[in-house]
Write a structure and sequence with these properties.
Helix content: 40-55%
Bound molecules: NADP nicotinamide-adenine-dinucleotide phosphate
CATH class: Alpha Beta
Number of strands: 9
CATH topology: Rossmann fold
Distance between the termini: 40 Å
Number of domains: 1
Structural class: alpha/beta
Number of helices: 8
Strand content: 15-25%
Amino acid sequence: MKTVFITGSSSGIGKAAAEYFAAQGWNVAATMRSLEKAVFTDTREIRKFRCDVTDEASVRSAVKEALAAFGSIDVCVNNAGFSLQGPFEITPSGDIRMQYETNVFGLMNVTRELLPHFRAGKKGMFINISSMAGRAGFPMYSLYNSTKFAVEGFSESLQHELRQFNIKVKIIEPGVVLTDFYGRSMVHQESGRYAAYDPYASAVIANLEQIGSRGIKPEAVARIIYKAAVSKNWKLRYTAGPDARISTLLRAVLPFGLFTRLLRSAVEKGVRTTL
Ligand SMILES: NC(=O)c1ccc[n+]([C@@H]2O[C@H](COP(=O)([O-])OP(=O)(O)OC[C@H]3O[C@@H](n4cnc5c(N)ncnc54)[C@H](OP(=O)(O)O)[C@@H]3O)[C@@H](O)[C@H]2O)c1
């Protein structure tokens, strides 16, 4: 029986992935920073482990406990993440650090901890949850965008050095997914602080909220994560959702200036274009 280790399993995509892998007969190490959320009761297939990806000691014990419980780990889904939204200039440096600690360094912490196990077994897979915001820059998302660009660059490079050990790297790029991401997991600056950036900032953020209210279900992303997990090939990127697919396609085929103008105008007008 194969085992998947998932970060941020308390809600959204991570929770849906844990349930989907378990339904396919996998063992699931469903890790989360607060076990009290108790979205799963432990079953034979799904076991919960505490793991705050920003805390190296917590990552170390989660990997150790999952290995003790299941004997081996085949796939790691680096999913934990959240978003900062708003103008860069007014965002406190502590918030920016936490954005990077979670979305970038947290993902690296988990990757580093699992690598010796994967190398020893001469196989393994990292599935890193990026975003369509890892391929295109959106207004009012400079910090989140930059972390997902970092995840893309890290993964794209890492795949080369891990290939010799038969360890695969996959990137999942969802568009809008209906989870807690646009709610409790979104860190906004107080709108009264937008100052020189208003009324632009307030209008764009209102439009982004509207765009974020329509998307695919996390279960649809879970199916794509699973497809990546069982694939035998070395394909790196998987988009999830029509918006992610269209934006990636347009970015590839349009001149960059035209693409970015279209994207800006879509967000500024509040149109759900799928950009
Ligand atoms: N929803 C979208 O539209 C969308 C689109 C593209 C990409 N994504 C990406 O998908 C991933 C999952 O997000 P989601 O949409 O499923 O949102 P979500 O429902 O808010 O889930 C985020 C998860 O990350 C966990 N998390 C946050 N900080 C953590 C930390 N330090 N250590 C461990 N876990 C932590 C949260 O745990 P708590 O419950 O403890 O807060 C939660 O389980 C994120 O990487 C996000 O960037 C989402």
